[in-house]
Design goal:
The chain is mainly β and about 200 residues long. The protein has no helices and 15 strands. The protein folds into two domains: about 20-120, Immunoglobulin-like (Sandwich), CATH 2.60.40; about 130-190, no CATH class. It has strands at about 30, 35-40, 45, 50, 60, 65-70, 75-80, 85-90, 100-105, 110-120, 130, 145-150, 155-160, 170-175, 180-190. A five-stranded antiparallel sheet has the order 11-12-13-14-15, with no helix packed on it. Strands 2-10-9-6 form a four-stranded mixed sheet, with no helix packed on it. The chain starts with about 30 loop residues before the first strand and ends in a 9-residue tail after the last strand.
Length: about 200
């Protein structure tokens, strides 16, 4: 779907910059973000184009060079542009939690970018986000520095964050009414032997 903004004569799906303003970095991996994002219905998301040629390396690209914006399923988001050319995707206010939205764009009319968004409800799942333990609440050197819950029921745990490294990852379920929480470890680099799921 090509985005349109009411009252805006310019098509936000069209790049605002071209030529020398858009550096050619060659055949690299282009993306909006590496891991799927979580967003609530009605939430606005900036489409910052980036490229990489190594794990954990993020290099920004001029946002005005991003064109051919599209969303799948069709109509799941709308697009608009800021004055600096940055494209903003807004998830439909009536999007159903559990829906996966795929946002797409093209850099320099040649390099495709994608980003997945998992729609969730904060009211039903307040765990979604990034959490950490404080040192004083844990034995020395044992505080979890990064505990991430996604709107798609995925989680990962990292004691010492470094680029894209994760100690282990799992699927989780949470019942807001009862407070019941359960997770099943799917894999990892350092899974504790005494883990209780």
């Amino acid at each position: 779907m090509r985005g349109e903004t009411a009252g805006n004569t310019a098509d936000p799906a069209v790049a605002t910059l071209s030529g020398e303003a858009c550096p050619d970095v060659g055949d690299r991996a282009y993306f909006f973000w590496m891991e799927p994002r979580s967003a609530e219905p009605g939430e606005a998301i900036a489409l910052d184009p980036s490229w990489t040629d190594m794990p954990g390396g993020y290099n920004d690209l001029p946002p005005g060079c991003l064109g051919n914006l599209a969303v799948y399923p069709e109509g799941a988001a709308t697009f608009e542009r800021q004055e600096d050319g940055l494209a903003i995707a807004t998830i439909r206010p009536d999007a159903k939690p559990g829906t996966t939205v795929r946002l797409e764009g093209v850099y320099r009319s040649a390099h495709s970018l994608t980003g997945r968004v998992n729609v969730y409800s904060q009211k039903d799942n307040p765990l979604v986000g990034t959490w950490r333990q404080e040192d004083e609440a844990c034995p020395p050197e044992s505080a979890v520095r990064e505990l991430v819950f996604t709107g798609a029921g995925e989680m990962d745990v990292t004691w010492t964050p470094l680029e894209v490294y994760k100690d282990y990852w799992a699927q989780y379920s949470f019942d807001r009414e009862t407070g019941a929480f359960k997770f099943d470890v799917e894999g990892g680099n350092k899974v504790p032997e005494d883990i209780v799921t």
